[in-house]
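step 3/5: co-fold with magnesium ion
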Amino acid sequence: MPQKQVEGLVIKNYSGFYYVQDKMDNIYECKVRGKVKEKLLSGDRVMFTPLGMRQGILEKVMPRENQLNRPRVANVTRVLVVMACDQPKPDLGLLDRLLFLAEFNRITPYIILNKCDLDIHEHAMQILNYYPGTYKVIKTSARQNIGIDMLGDAISGEIAVFAGPSGVGKSHMLQRLIGQADIRTGEVSAKIGRGKHTTRHVELYPLPQGGWIVDTPGFSVLDMPALKREDLPQYFPDFTAQASDCKFSNCLHYREKECGVKTAVGEHIILSSRYQNYISMLQEVMERERCY
Ligand SMILES: Nc1nc2c(ncn2[C@@H]2O[C@H](COP(=O)(O)OP(=O)(O)OP(=O)(O)O)[C@@H](O)[C@H]2O)c(=O)[nH]1
Ligand SMILES: [Mg+2]
Ligand SMILES: [Zn+2]
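step 4/5: write tokens
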């Protein structure tokens, strides 16, 4: 009699095996049935046939909700954009770019301000003063174990990825979040080395309170995806209310006169660095349009 297939989630791909977690949180080491042609990613929902309690045959990949390329992972529902209060000082350009990319991929971003045990750099102050109007902002200290519960709540039931520059404490936060849970997956903790990650080796770490988190190596440069200039403003939710005062309904908030967004920047309602970062993304999009 054929074995019954069950649903699971690919949490990592290692040495030719896919590690699949079922609804009961058991993890199976799976080989792929020959006929599965699609390239599998961590985060893929699959059907598999368990062979005993630890092994299985991966039969089928379910359609993806989305797919990120950095890190390469499917079905992400949260992006945790991490900056440090200091050391390194927050990179507001990268912050705005990562927030845009999350919006563009229709994934809810959170801003995590780590190292709150240190003095707060003026850029971190700007994050705390401005961004909570639009995004959820969580202050944490991985070192002093502050705010980690709130961070865990934000991930619970979700597939989350860390994003942000090198050295802000992503791996240390991950270590705090998984706590004792790493016993379940065995070799996990040894692999959360610093700077040792490659995007080839993307792993979903299950949290004790539910949900999964992917560590990401730090980065500072990101290209803009292909899009049209007039599609850019919609991904800046804090601009939307002000844009109703623009003279032109298709205003790019750039060279146009009578622009509600530019007025709001002048009145310090919109953070001026955020507007500048928007303009540099817009210029990049316009530059790329010429290549099509
Ligand atoms: N003061 C302070 N230092 C921290 C905190 N969290 C991490 N660190 C330190 O910051 C440094 C970088 O931490 P990592 O966790 O390796 O940073 P990362 O974001 O994973 O860096 P990459 O893997 O290079 O992207 C380490 O020296 C940590 O000890 C914190 O909350 N407060
Ligand atoms: Mg790291
Ligand atoms: Zn405008």
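step 5/5: annotate
Residues 181-199 have pLDDT under 50 and may be disordered.
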